[in-house]
Amino acid sequence: MRLAASSVALAALVAVASPVLAHTSAPVAAPAAAAPSATPLRAAPVSELVARVDIPWKRFQLDNGLTVLVHEDRKAPVVAVSVWYNVGSKDEPKGSTGFAHLFEHLMFGGSENSPSSHIQTMNAAGATGLNGTTWFDRTNYFQTVPTPALDYTLYLESDRMGYLLGQVSQEVLDLQRGVVQNEKRQGDNQPYGLTYYATLEALFPEGHPYRHSTIGSMADLDAASMETVRDWFRENYGPNNAILVLSGDIDEAKARELSQRYFGAIARGPVNTPAAAPIPTLAAPVEQVLHDRVAQTRISRTWTTPGMTDPDSVPLSVGASVLGGLASSRLDNVLVRDEQIASGVSAGNQVFQRVSMFSYSAMVKPGADADAVARRMDEVLADLIANGPTQDEIDRVVTQFASRRIQGLEMANGKASVLAEGQLYAGDPDFYKKELAAYAAVTPAQVQAAMKKWLSRPVYSQIVMPGEREAYVDAAAAPSGATPTPAAPIQRVAREATPAIGEVSNVDFPAVERAALSNGIEVVYARSTTVPVTRVALEFDAGVAADRADRLGAHTLMLNVMQEGTTTRDSKALAEAQERLGASVLVGSSMDRTTASLSTVTTNLQPSLTLLSDVVRNPAFAPAEVERLRAQRLAGLANEKTQPAAIAGRALPPLIYGDSHPYGRSFSGTGDEAVIRSLTRADLVADHAAWIRPDNAKLFVVSDLPLAELKPQLEAAFGDWRAPTTAKGTKAFTTALPQTSARIVLIDRPQSPQSLIYGGQVLPVSGGDDILTLTTANTVLGADFLSRINADLRETKGWSYGVRGSVNTLQNRSPYIVNAPVQANRTGESIAALIGQYERFLGADGVTQAERDRTVLGDTRGLSGSYETSAQVLGAMRSNALYGRPDGYQEALAGRINALTAEQMDAAARAAIKPDTFVWVVVGDASVVKPQLDALGLPVEVRTAAAPTTAQ
To answer: What are the DSSP calls for 303-371, one per residue?
Structure first.
């Protein structure tokens, strides 16, 4: 289970906002218009986009107070089942921080009439998107299931709502306590990972419901006892404190029948009135300087602001987007593009039910003066407040917001979440319409007034500088809550038998059609009419593997510069054009392919295709942009040296593939610092000519338009594109692979409360091989939540938040990679446990019949929910092309998987996975970890994590 927008994850991204200073400043010019020679691009009116956002619903309430919302959508035989409880971390009493989230974990351990893991039972039912999240204002649980599994799912959801406590033992509590504490360590271990705690404590006074993070403190998690577990459930998990949303292949009549059958007998509980949460104002400005093992100084400003139903909420959110949320934002234009004193900026209004936090931040560019950056970012805000945004800026924010809302309505669970949020926080499932209307109607004067009102108050300023971080407070060796105390036995209530799951029909994958443009570019197309959206992927046979071994990072730097200006539109104009259209144009790469992608509402397809074509065909590679993007890449490389996953991801590939192999480099493609410094504009132009060309391209499209209407627009955008006379790029995979043996490479990263273990080998298979049997076997071994290795390290030992072993499918020889973040004091034991699990599975203890049946049922039943969105369909089409699969691959999967035997799965795994050849990379504190590793009897090489280039 994850924390929704978890405090830990947000700590690295939190954009904190700045004070209106007393000094006067030169006005900041509004963003420049597009270059005069650019083709005008006309977008549909915002009102037309807003009118397309509609989620019909029905609502009723059971006698016990359970509110039920129903949205009927027959596009696929699936139903999203979502339960939202009106309780979150703001409702936790003093001494119980983190308990709402801890209890969320306990809800997945099974219930009285379904004692197996909820994830295990739901996976076998074919659930997709299965998870739970906790945040300040709520806790929710959700999954999308095949329609024949709906009764089964509602039975299980009702069982854990009404009949849970008999299954929650001291052992279960202690295990999940350890898992949650490892989730906390995993977030805290990241650069800037401790800063969100400081922000909350500075902004909110003692006793305020929003003062503590959702993940909580180690001490309070230690203290959680069985009695607090029982009290929390009884006080907060009654049906009258919950909302059940059913979205998809269901109507109101059926929803009434099923909700009454499964939830009607559950007794009411106490009414939870959300804690009062006034909007605090600091008595005076507060500045706090923190130190962390980071590469760049980050300057942040934050205020508390009103909650989501306040009239000022939307104007503040729009203002934040103009300030630092848009790609063409004021901060981006001034600090990043024009003056180039920051490598990145952000701003946002983080909205909660009772309060919000308006914040903005800047990452100081290496070599820049942090004080000067702080002054300039404050001047930009002061100017925006003094003069207000332009109407064009507001229109771009609103168009982008409406477009994203439309695109988010493809998934049944996405619509369920929108309805649930409105019901829970505003008492109105249609709250999203009121919010959209407020966005569409907001004026520059309203934005200016709201920002002046709320951002003229004293501000909290946070400066995070490179250095040693403060001492980490870890969990106790013997948590006080783990001491068993006498507790009255729970009287279990027998219910009717668990409903059977009906026959699940095979997935109906959209028909794939093909066409060709006049210049020979192949078009691969499928239709999806759920929402008026078109997705395009112009794919090139290139990718990170296209870089020569002595030119690592050249290809991705070229792609970065491509997106920052064409011969008719500069960087600002490109960003503004996308925002006016509500379109997203991105250029990026996997290991094997480079892709220029477009996502847009179909109403704006023609101008959006014009923009995509301009980016792909006419990049300017302006010298100033080359230098700006080079500096940003170098700053990014410095940041990678502080991030555990980036450190491990850079170390492992060359150890198993060798330095000269096309896959023997970081899969991120960010490259080598010396190479990035040496690249010239001519190098980037040549790289573009070699790889980004029509004779190396294929177009993949999923749209609500039929192909006959779509093809002329594609032809207009790309049909007259001609290949250059220079040679097309080639990749060579002839390099011999090194012979590896079991060993450990320890990369010392001091002050790490958690170690990150990466282990792997190169498999004797490629993406074009038939690897279905191998990957299905590995679902049992390493890829599933219930896999052998995750069940051991997370669900039995509690040493990790999550462990995974994956067949990373590539076009050529593919790697097998184990990813295991574990608590530092269990690093050696974790590697030993992993090795033991692999040896047993690949030896005498292979796939059991129960594991085979569970995996086959889950994989086949889950197909119906796996291609619910146009993005999922587009991804499947692209994978089929990359790996040489037929168009009918997805529809043939169920039959092939059903035919698999445990013996076949064992044979495939034993032929490919060789743990005695694994190279293990460990990123952690060597002073803590090395003695543990030495005891394993494997060779241990110690490396020092490369020191990042810092900015003061």
So the answer is: EEEE-TTSTTHHHHHHHHIIIIISTT-HHIIIIIIIS--EEEEEEEEEE-SSEEEEEEEEEEPTTS-HH
Dihedral angle of Cα 214, 783, 928, 192, to the nearest 10 degrees: -40
Q: What's at 824, amino acid-wise?
A: A
Q: List the one residue out of 443, 317, 370, 307 whose CA is nearest residue 15.
A: 317
pLDDT digits (tens, 9 = 90+) for 6-59: 222 222 222 222 222 222 233 333 333 444 467 678 888 888 888 888 999 999
State the Cα–Cα distance between residues 223 and 781, nearest whole angstrom: 34
143-162: pLDDT as tens digits = 999 999 999 999 999 999 99
Q: Are 182 and 801 in contact (CB under 8 A)?
A: yes
DSSP 550: T
Is there a contact between 363 and 345 (Cβ–Cβ < 8 Å)? yes
Q: For 703, phi and psi rounded to 5 degrees?
A: -150, 160
Strand order in the sheet with 342-351: 286-292, 460-466, 298-306, 355-364, 342-351
Residue pair 424/140 in contact (Cβ under 8 Å)? The answer is: no
Distance CA 55, CA 73 (A): 9
CA distance 265 to 752: 49
What lies within 8 Å, CB to CB, of 761 at 6+ separation is 656, 740, 815, 816, 913, 914, 915, 917, 918, 919
Give the Cα separation of 210 and 324 in Å (integer).
24
- State which amino acid sits at residue 72: E
Residue type, 307: G
Do 55 and 406 touch, CB atoms closer than 8 A?
A: no
**Cα 819 from Cα 219, distance rounded (Å):** 28
* Torsion, Cα of 136, 139, 143, 144 (10° steps): -70
Contacts for 832 with CB less than 8 Å, ≥ 6 apart: 936
pTM above 0.85, yes or no: yes
CB neighbour list of residue 501: distance below 8 Å, 6 or more residues apart: 125, 146, 148, 149, 152, 861
Q: How many other C-beta atoms are found inside a 10 Å radius of the C-beta of residue 230?
A: 16
Cβ proximity of 417 and 470 under 8 Å: no
Task: Determine the residue type at 443.
Answer: T
Cβ(861)–Cβ(505) under 8 Å? no
CB 279 within 8 A of CB 310: no
CA distance 546 to 553: 10
What distance in Å separates the CA atoms of residue 643 and residue 630, rounded to the nearest whole number?
Answer: 20
Residue showing tokens 């100081």: 364
Token pair of 49 as six digits: 């986009």
Query: pLDDT tens, 254-293?
Result: 999 999 999 999 999 998 887 789 999 999 999 999 999 9
CA 711 to chain centre: 33
Measured between alpha carbons, how far apart are the two ends of the chain, in Å? 38
